[in-house]
Each structure stands twice: as structure tokens, then as C-alpha cells.
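Weekly modeling sync, notes
Attendees: AB, CL, MP (scribe)

Item 1: holo prediction request
CL wants a bound-state model with histidyl-adenosine monophosphate before deciding which constructs to order. AB pointed out that an apo prediction alone won't tell us much about the pocket. Agreed to run with the ligand included and paste results into these notes for async review.

Input as submitted:
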Amino acid sequence: MTFRSPTGAEDLLPERAAAFRRIEAAVRDVCERFGYREIRTPIFEYTELFERGVGETTDIVEKEMFTIPPRSEDGEASLSLRPEMTAPTARALIEHNLHKARPFNKLYYIGPAFRRERPQKGRLRQFSQFGVEAFGSDDPRLDAETIQVLAEVLRAAGVKRTEIRLNSIGCGVCRAAYRDALKARVKADLAAYCPNCAKRFERNPFRIFDCKQEKCRAISANLPPIADALCEACRGHFAEVRRSLQAAGLDHTLDGRLVRGLDYYTKTVYEFTSDDLGAQNAVGGGGRYDGLVAELGGPAMGAVGFAAGIERIALLLGDGAAAPAACDFYVVVIRPEDRGEAFKLASRLRTEGFAGDLDYEGKSVKAQMRSANAAGARHVVVLGPDEWARGEVKVKAMATGAETAVKAEALVAALRGRSA
Ligand code: HAM
């Protein structure tokens, strides 16, 4: 019997892990350049956090969470693997009073998230997200900044051609008025929608814009977009977001039907999409969520952020060959009985900070040389009986082929001199 990784959970083999690491390096570099500080929260939280934060009627909470039921023995409440990191980050902000130490906080994160979805290209059950969350400001320029962060990460990682889709779904006031108008308008046509839409409509009428079914999309296409129903303040906010995006040189498309699948959003929402991804075309998405911190028991404060999927970015980049790790030396032994001495040499070089390797498979001299070549070693240190009898090794510079005899105790200095 053999085992496979669980459905929707993948192993990152070394080549792919290297590709992920390059993307993560771009994330860290860009986020820190923009003044965001890293936060790491647990991969599981009390289930109620997501029910309250993400919303009980969302697909994520209703159908997709990996939940560990409560245990009656110790009274521990239900736990869930995090399906996203916005609610956990807001929870941590409140729990640790970060907003009291600084009224304005800019945070970023990278890590795994979990959703029990039907796996397909670009959709996994364990996937890697990075994102930023900025807490404590209503400034529309901050919305634009978060969009610029994602655009810059994608550029730094080497992603070409993504589209930025933008919408505003209004504040509590204009959203409520629009919701009533929408309900009144759709009620008559409800029978024509799919059963899923009909079911969700009562609880969250905006979800009908999210439905992927053609017939639902066709009916919804005739509905007035929420952008037309925005109050004065929300309209002003949205106009400033757009001006700031222009100022940052970021083209975007207005998408009046973009509502996003999480309940916490207010005002600005956005998604970065790519036609090269297929059905799961969202590289990242986010928006403003001015009510979330208060909803989770903290003070009222403006907040905005996004998250993006590393697997999807890796898909866009393709399987580019990973750059091989640097290799300063490879120790080759002529006689098998000198392998202990070779180990000693290699261990000393490594503790001195050199990168390199030696043979553990009992290979012939020729095969050891092939390994040195394959590793891209800059120097081969040959431990041969004649030199060794004089306390020396032969160092071959692979770039030039030049060979020199070096005293064993002078090897570190010799390699250091050559690599300088
Ligand atoms: P989201 O749109 O649910 O937003 O997820 C963000 C990104 O995570 C998606 O655009 C996609 O790239 C990736 N993603 C989501 N689910 C999967 C999956 N099953 N497999 C692979 N990748 C996936 C959020 O999570 C919000 N917390 C974003 C946010 C932050 N809003 C404000 N701040």
C-alpha cells in the first residue's frame, strides 16, 4: 500500500519550493518597502471568529471550512483551520491592543490557508496566501496604496498582464438602501434564477452577482449596478481612489458587478484577474472593511487590504528553472579510505561559511567529478594519497582548469582568497 497527499493538498518539491520562495522574497521586499510589518497568526482559530468575521452566509463559512468540533470533555469551543487571514489579523490587532500603541498599523502576512473546495487548476484545499491589512485610516489613498502593493509584488515576481477590476459597494447606509431596492426588483424574477441563488437571495441578495451560471448572469446584467446607488460620501471616496490609482500609473477597469464572496467589505472592492488562469482567474482580491474591527469587539476604525494566492502566481510564471544554489567546493577522494578526512575538510569549510558538498554514495573518482560539475562547484578539492602524505590537497578552479597544491590548514584562506 502506498499513500498519497490528501485531495487538494500538494507537496512542494524542491524546484517548486524555490519558485515559491522567489515569490515570497518579492512579497517581503515590496511590503517592507511600503512600510508594512510582518504578522504571523495561528493556522487555526475559534470557528466563531470566521462566522462573525467572514460571515455565516458566505460559501467559505457555510461549506468550506475544515472544522474540528468542540470537545465536551474540556469545554474547548469549535476550532477551524483558517480559510483566510483578514479576520485573524483583525483579531490579533484587537487582542494585543496594537491600535493603542499606534493608531495606524500596516501589517502583511504569508502563509497557508484552507478551504474545502472542489480542487481544480488553481484551486486547492491547502493554498498559500500573502496579503496586507492596514488598520486605522479612512483615507481613500490607502485603498490605492494596497492596490499598488499587489501590482508591485506581481511586477517584481515577473507576472505580466493582469487586469485590475474595481468597484465600490458602498457604506452601511447606501448599501442598505440598495439592498432593499435590489430585493424588490429581483423578487419577481427569482424563479428564473438557479436554486442556489434563490436560496441565498433572502440572506444576502448581493450573492446573485457572484453566481457563475449563465442564466443568472444574464438576468443580473439588467440590474442597476450598486455604484449608481452610492451616497455622496462613498461616491467621493471612490472618485479619490480612482484618482490615486491614476496618480500611481495603475490602469483599472470598473466592474459594477464585483461584490466579492466575503461579508466584511465596505466601499472599495477590487480583484486582480488574469485570462491565463482559466476558470479560477483571480490572482488576488481585497478591499475596504470599515466595520470588521468593531464587529470583532474592537473600536470602530477604517481598514483596507488584500490577499493573493501564491499557487496562482506560480501558475502564471510557469515552471522556470530554479537557479542552482551557490556551490563553492566539492571534495573528491581518490581512495575510499580517505572519506573520513574528506568529511573533516568539508565540515571545516562549511563551518567557515562556504557552501559545498562531498560524496556519500561511494562513487568512483570520475563520478565524483561529474557530481561536482552538476552542482556547479567553483572549486574541486581533490584529496589524493600523494598530496595528502605531504599534508596537502589539490584545488582545481573549475572556471579555468588551473590546479594548485594547497596545505590543508591553508585551504580556508586559499578558497577565501579565490572567491574574493
Ligand atoms: P479571497 O478572494 O477569498 O480574499 O482570496 C484571495 C486570493 O486567494 C484569491 O484571489 C486566490 O488567488 C487565492 N485563493 C483563494 N482560495 C483559493 C484556493 N482554494 N486555492 C488557491 N488559491 C486560492 C480573501 O481571502 C480576503 N481575506 C482578502 C482580503 C484581505 N480582503 C481584505 N483584506
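Recorded for review: The first helix runs from residue 14 to 33.
Action items: CL to compare against the apo run; MP to circulate these notes.
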